[in-house]
Design brief:
With 179 residues, the protein is mostly helical. It is 83% helix and 0% strand.
Length: 179
């Protein structure tokens, strides 16, 4: 089903890099909306941005338009989007220091994957809080912040703990494989 969706989008002439850039552009608007008091719109735009981010790889694979440049563009865009989403959570009221720690740990998780790939190893599927789980969790935390900042703060603390577990899981996997 997902492959056919990616193929159809590709057949419409949409290039995966266009989806990446669209998702990135939308993600940069998310904290602006939060800053100016449009929290609900910020959370909805975060969801839309994440959707485009998920579609780019799907379209690239299904349409045969995977490229090294596209992979780098996607990875860089993911880091910027991560920062944008975490900033949004802070702007919605969660302690900035906790948000900073969460962002730093998410960058470490991504850095581990990049280093492993440079050694010819794959980190995909290793760790409890990969990006595919982290982004929906950030959306949930941002939505919680609209309702009750205390619960959103608890969500960020839980994400920090799970990020530390993920880092340990990846280090353990690397130690087993890379010696």
């Amino acid at each position: 089903m997902w492959t056919s969706l990616g193929k159809r989008i590709g057949e419409l002439g949409v290039h995966p890099n266009q989806l990446t850039l669209l998702g990135l552009g939308l993600s940069l608007l998310v904290p602006l909306l939060a800053y100016f008091g449009y929290g609900i719109a910020a959370v909805l735009l975060m969801v839309l941005s994440a959707l485009f981010d998920a579609l780019d790889g799907l379209v690239a694979r299904a349409s045969g338009k995977e490229s090294k440049f596209g992979a780098v563009l996607d990875s860089v865009s993911d880091r910027i989007s991560d920062a944008s989403y975490v900033l949004t959570v802070a702007l919605l009221g969660v302690d900035i220091l906790l948000c900073y720690v969460l962002l730093a740990l998410s960058f470490v998780i991504s850095y581990q994957a990049a280093l492993a790939e440079g050694m010819g190893l794959r980190m995909k599927g290793i760790g409890i809080l990969e990006r595919k789980h982290r982004v929906p969790a950030l959306v949930a935390v941002a939505a919680l912040a609209l309702w009750e900042v205390m619960w959103a703060t608890a969500g960020v603390i839980l994400m920090i703990a799970l990020s530390l577990v993920t880092i340990a899981q990846r280090m353990s996997a690397l130690a087993r494989v890379a010696g």
